[in-house]
Amino acid sequence: MSALPGERSYDAVDPEQALKYAIRHYAGDRVQIVEGVIEPLSRGWDHEALADGIRHQLSCRVRELGCVTGSGDLDLPGSSNWYVPDVAVVPASLARGSGALLPDRTLLVVEVTSESSGDTDRVVKRRRYAEYGAPLYLLIDRQDRACTLFSEPGALGYTKAIGPLPFGEPIELPEPFGLRVDTSRL
């Protein structure tokens, strides 16, 4: 069916863009899209405290690098994914006035698992962050009480992993961070 002059054809609407537009402009709460499924973000205080502990340990080095930490939107164009990581480190210049960023514009992405999102963080997001070029992905697995650092992203996933290391063992973040994350209080 073709549109009448002056009318918009719904055949021309890009479903990916429509979905992403809707969650940015009409979703009352923060939500993300994981493989086409809209997921509300409802993080408990224990989850937030853990993410805050990671932010605190990174804060001095992040400032030295001219970056910021946050949980801003990450778009994965060409897919039905729109992520809101627990912590992301991005150059401050990219955080100003921009909407969503692409994962390859981050220096580090951190996801903290919860009972409802554990498999998503362990499998789906790990694969997608690698596919979209996030250089470092730190998975804080609350259920397994372990941390894993993934690096060297590629189309088929990360090619290097350190861990899983049990909570209590430090995890070394490579350059540009060059610091040790204390996991003893996680």
Provide a descriptive summary of the structure in words.
- This protein is α+β, with helices and mostly antiparallel strands and 186 residues long.
- The chain has one domain (43-181): tt1808, chain A.
- It has four helices and twelve strands, in the order H-E-E-H-E-E-E-E-H-E-H-E-E-E-E-E.
- The chain has helices at residues 15-25, 45-64, 92-95, 118-131, and strands at 31-34, 37-40, 67-70, 74-76, 81-83, 87-91, 108-112, 136-141, 146-154, 157-166, 171-173, 179-181.
- It has a six-stranded mixed sheet. A two-stranded antiparallel ribbon has the order 1-2. Strands 4-5 form a two-stranded antiparallel sheet.
- The longest helix has 20 residues, at 45-64.
- The mean pLDDT is 85.
Number of helices: 4
Quaternary structure state of the chains depicted: single chain
First-to-last CA distance: 57 Å
> What structural class do helix, strand and pairing data support?
alpha+beta
| CATH-assigned homologous superfamily | tt1808, chain A
- Helical proportion? 25-40%
Detail the poorly predicted runs: none
Topology, number of strands: 12
- Fill in the CATH topology: tt1808, chain A
Overall domain count = 1
- CATH classification class: Alpha Beta
Largest sheet: 6 strands, mixed
**What Rg, in angstroms, do the CA atoms define?**
18 Å
Shape: globular
Name the helix and strand elements from N-terminus to C-terminus, one letter apiece. Answer: HEEHEEEEHEHEEEEE
Strand order of the main beta sheet, please?
3-6-7-8-9-10
> What is the mean predicted local confidence, pLDDT?
85
* CATH architecture tag: Alpha-Beta Complex
Strand content: 25-35%
